[in-house]
Every structure is written in structure tokens, then in C-alpha cells.
Amino acid sequence: MLEFEVKDFRELSGIGDSLVNLIYSLALSNTLKRPVGKRAPNYVLSKALAASNLRELAGKRVDRSEMGDVVEALIFDAWIKNRITLEACVVILAENLAENLKCPEGSNTRRDAREIRDASIQAFAALLKFIGDSYSTDTDDKSDNGDSDAGDNSGTAGDRMTECFCICDGHKAPAVAVDAVVRKGNRILLIKRKRGPFKGKFALPGGFVECGETTKEAIIREVKEETAVDIEIEGLLGVYSNPERDPRGHVISICYTATVIGEGKEKGGDDAEEAVFVDIEEINTDNLAFDHFRIINEYLEDITGDGKCFVKNAGV
User: Fold this and answer.
1) Are residues 95 and 183 in the same domain?
2) Which of 21, 38, 46, 91 gives a 20 to 30 Å CA spacing to 316?
3) Is the pTM of this model over 0.70?
4) Does the annotation count 274 as an active-site position?
5) Residue 278 in contact with residue 315, Cβ under 8 Å?
6) Under 8 Å between Cβ of 193 and 200
7) How many independent structural domains does the chain possess?
8) Cα 16 from Cα 22, distance rounded (Å)
9) Closest among 129, 35, 127 to 86, alpha carbons compared
10) Are residues 289 and 197 in the same domain?
């Protein structure tokens, strides 16, 4: 889409300004239930960058007034590389605005303006955290291979922004994620989602594949990060590619079956508020995120061979 070379993702801030104002206005309009055209204040973007723990992207010499430019460039960079869709940006902002905004709909008091500002900081911080999680910030592999230089910043997230592409031959491609059905006896490992979409609902552990790793490496990492459980992959359950399966955009999920290694106790971490093994008959279809109801049932059909639907409307 861009017919010019960008050496530093921060050069995109000029274009990113318009994009950020668009998604912010749409999110505010959806939250306040009325048309709102509003610029995202630099103060809000700067505070959100700090709250998202991505301050390193701005660099040590960047003035505080320029941190908003970093946010605009970061969001545009993620969109142009298909890390996130515009619809997903709006959904994440709107969900977090609604959660943190306490002012009455349609009110324009000074107090409401402060509340909107504070809620906007939290909303943009959540969006930046989501975008940041889609990039690899781990340099351990380079260090282990002797490729890392203590004085070299080439391994930082900001530098790798321009290296990790989800675009093939100039065309946007779907994002790739992994999930796992981890079974222990008659129970399946589920996580309670800490963030949107489907915040508060249960799901199979999983997440996006990072640049430089295989899908098997990705699911082992994701399960460990979200549940503290070590797993051994048994096999491939299926590939789930319905463009409507994820409200954030077109996400293809590669789902594995796995067993637990060791005696570690499951506990929520990273994007998971909680991790728990749930009896198959107690899994509630109405409280499962994405298409994980279908995935679990296909797994159970495979191991029984009778086509029976096991997951019912009861329990967790």
C-alpha cells in the first residue's frame, strides 16, 4: 500500500495522526451514542504510551511533546502491516471507554471532559498493549546465539516494527494465531479473558504467533504465559479460518491438542485473569469466547467417534 520506504516507523506519525483521530471519533461516538468528531489529545496519547509500558519505543531523547507522535506512528504501523484492523481498533477503544467512562451520556460538563480524558488514556493504553503484544520484544534467542550486542538497539520492539510484516506481495494477509485443547483426565484447560474482545468469558489458551517462531513454539509459549502450565503437543486438531470468527479482524487459528508436563499448578497470567481445568460436562457454551465451543466439540467428537455434542449450557 505504501509505495515508499520507511526507515523508522516514527516517520509515519503524520499519516497516523488522521488514522488515530478517525478511530478515536468512531469509538467515542459508539460509546456516547451520538456523533462525535474529536482529535486525540497529545496528552492522552503520551499518558497512554507510558501506561502501556511501551515508553521505550519513543527513545531516550524524544521530548514528552513528541510522544503522541510515537503513538500515532505505532498504531498506523500496526494497521498497515495487518497487525490489527481499523474495526478492531475501534472495538478495543470503545470497550475500554465504556468500561472506564462514568459520565452521563450526552453531558458536556467540565467534569465529563476530565472523565472522558482519563477514560481515553486507559482505552489507548489497552490498544497499545494489544498492539505491543503482537510484536516480539524478546531478545533472548539472539543472546543465546551470540548475535546480540549490549550496545545495539536492533533487538528493541521499535526497531523490529519495520521488519515484521503480515503483507504478502503487497496484499494484506490474515493474522495467524494458535490455540490448544489441553486435557487432563475429564477436564479441559480454560482461561478467563482479562481483556476484550470477550473480556470475562472463558477461552482455550492461545494467542498470536510472533515473527520468528513456529506455530508449535507459539502455542507452547502462549500456554505457559497464560496458565503457567508446561505442555507437550500431541497433534494438530484443525485450522479455523472463518473471517467472522474474531471481531478484531480476519484471524486464522491453528489448534493443537496437548497434554500437561510436570506437576505445575495452573494460574492466570499475561492476558488471562484466571486459568482453570474444567470438567467437560460443566463447560458453558454461552460463556465461551470466539468459536471455541465448536473447537472443543470437534475435539471430543474426534476422540469418541460418535459425533455427540458434549458441551452443554451449564457450569463455567
Assistant:
1) no
2) 91
3) no
4) yes
5) yes
6) yes
7) 2
8) 10
9) 127
10) yes
